[in-house]
## 1
Amino acid sequence: MNRRYRKTIIAGNWKMNKTATETKKFAEELKTMLPKAKWCDVVVCVPFVNIPAAIRAFKDMRVAIGAEDLFYEKSGAYTGEVSADMLKDLGVKYVIIGHSERRQYFGETDVTVNKKVLAALEVGLHPIICVGETLEQREMGITMELIALQTKAAFAGVPAEKARKCVIAYEPVWAIGTGKTATAEQANEVCNAIRATIRHLYGARVARSVTIQYGGSMNPANAAELLAQPDVDGGLIGGAALVPEKFTAIINAANQE
Ligand code: PGA
């Protein structure tokens, strides 16, 4: 973390979990636990259908609501899809784009990720752009090249003043939902390389101000060590974000002065 230059953001990614009723219950429980200290921003990204319930339930809390995806077209004949305007109109602030599960199961590519980033920025949503290598790619020794490529592709056509509004999440695919966390050094090494790519694209000032999260089996036991790394500015948390006690413990780890 480096709060002097950029925000620390702890974001939950609920994936396909919880009903609207369970969303309300989670918010009520979290409310009793959230720390007073405000050193980090808290975001909860929920399934589309839970967004209205989440907006209502988290209204009086310092928690911003995010979506888990969007479609890049403005409107039209795209059955089943949800646009950036629809999210914005509901009061959504963040949107996860290019999560590895979307890349793996739903045909997301670097090209569609880029289109979605542009669509989100156009209406003022903050994209949380996910990048990360598979185990096979890590073992082949191409992690850094691949991450640089994914990052450059995601930012194609994004001007500097909008790049500052983006969050990047480094999520090694082999660490997601597996209980296998990257070591703090591995996480920092890649987050640092992502910042170098942003510096190359936009210069030092933008690179310094962009929040870069780590995601992949982050939990109360490993959060403090990961967040202590200079280039790890928060977390994108799946499993542990579904349990108010665990999510709060990670927020507390990010709230250390
Ligand atoms: P996990 O998921 O924390 O359950 O590993 C992280 C993510 O996929 O964003």
Note: The chain has a mean pLDDT of 96.
## 2
Amino acid sequence: MPEAKVFPGARIGVLGGGQLGGMFAAAATRMGYLVEAFSDTADCPAARVCDRVHVVDFADETRLASLAAGLAAVTLEFENIPARAAAAVAAVTRLRPSPEVLFTTQDRGREKAFLATHGFPCAKHALIRSRGELPRAAATVGFPSVLKTTAFGYDGKGQRKVGSPAELEAAFDAFGGQETVLEEWVEFECELSVVAARGEDGEIAAFAPSRNEHANHILDVAVAPSGLAEPQVRGARELAEGVLETLGVVGTACVEMFLARDGRLLVNEIAPRPHNSGHLTIDACETSQFEQQLRALCGLPLGSPRQVSPAAMVNLLGDCWANGEPDWAAALGVPGVRLSLYGKSDPRPGRKMGHLTAVGATAEEAVERASLARRLSSAGRANGPSSSC
Ligand code: AMP
């Protein structure tokens, strides 16, 4: 039996109070919902947009359950939510994506096992639970390779490239002997991601793949269309759709991929939530990734993911504030550019403070505009702009 629809006017929740939660709340508030965020800090980006923020300890399942019981539906904006907290919320209201999806995707080992079990292509890898398993993993995967902790890794944290058994041992020890995955180093043509939404009824709507460039392991530039040939675009979409369907995601999720130099598309990571590379959907698509998350959560029809204009996004990291507030007037003087700031007060290096998006007649023009806006915003600074700001 289909689940009851949750209509505008209802109170809904989001686990997490970061910028993704804030952008979800903005989309939901616009459509008449009241949004309550669950965060470990009161002064979180979502606080500016939500009806209420509950400052919670995610280990306090009783309190989480009592707060969530008053909500018609709950979604999430980060995956490092303890499994017991997710289960406690799911026991009292609709939580989408489900605790099972969260459990699989919040651990690189389980995620890789899921991909391998269902025949989704990914880099050669081996799970390492103890020091004694290092030689077997090295023999399976070879070098160069990258050692990644299975838990709590993001933006390159908890990962190190290794070129020899000695480096592998040193990296394993540096991570404190915790569970890790050793992964083949992929020589890639480019990195891609496909953000897609899936409804309770199984309907899937995938956005066009975006082509992503990283700087210091953090997303720097995303652009769509990706410029790839049609068979590759279709392959990337089908891969993402297959992952969402097999995993049983309800909501918005992102499948990050490598296009290897030998032409293989390999899944790198699955994020069971909207993604940084999908922010340009707000400016360039008929429905944004956040509105799709809301529609899927509430059992409403998904919107069209059609892209109406080429678009690009550049991240604004805390580094861009190294010499004071950037010159936003200069950035906004570039045609087609829009600014999003997350309301964070402490611009530390590497911290995502906001982003700039640009539309253009072509993908190249969109990238040029967004990059120019970022350069101009920091042009007056004493030391000049660094590569990613
Ligand atoms: P991840 O945290 O797994 O998304 O990794 C962050 C970034 O590190 C990726 O977007 C890639 O640029 C790079 N990276 C991660 N794994 C690999 C790999 N197996 N081969 C080559 N580059 C990688």
Note: The CA atoms of residues 115 and 276 lie 22 Å apart.
